[in-house]
Write a structure and sequence with these properties.
Elements: E1 7-10, E2 16-19, H1 30-39, H2 54-64, H3 69-77, H4 84-95
Antiparallel strand pairs: 1-2
Helix pairs in contact: 3-4
C-alpha cells in the first residue's frame, strides 16, 4: 500500500503532532508496539461515600479513558459535569502516589 510521508505539525506550546493521509497509517514494528504497551499503566482508584449515580460517574470515567494522565486531568478541568473534580482528584491521587 502506498502512503505519503506524514506531515508534522507543531503547536504553539511546542508539542508535535503527525498528520497522516486519511485512512493510511504506517505499520509499526512489533518491537515498537511491545515497548509502547509495556509503558502503559492502569490505575484503579476507590472513593467511598459518593452520593452520586454510578451511571453518571461511569460516563465521566469513560470520557477520559484512553487519555494520558495529564490530558485526562486537563479534560476534566474544563468539563461541566458536577463530579468531574472528584474523578480528577482520584486520578491525580492514584497516578502520582508514591
Amino acid at each position: 500500500p502506498f502512503w505519503t510521508k506524514p506531515q508534522i505539525i507543531r503547536t504553539d506550546d511546542g508539542r508535535n503532532f503527525m498528520l497522516f493521509r486519511e485512512g493510511y497509517h504506517p505499520k509499526l514494528k512489533p518491537g515498537l508496539v511491545r515497548r509502547r504497551i509495556e509503558k502503559l499503566r492502569t490505575y484503579e482508584g476507590k472513593e467511598r461515600d459518593l452520593r452520586h449515580s454510578k451511571w453518571k460517574l461511569n460516563l465521566i470515567c469513560k470520557f477520559v479513558t484512553g487519555y494520558t494522565v495529564e490530558d485526562a486531568l486537563q479534560q476534566l478541568k474544563y468539563s461541566k459535569k458536577a463530579y468531574a473534580p472528584v474523578i480528577s482528584k482520584i486520578i491525580s491521587k492514584k497516578a502520582y502516589a508514591p
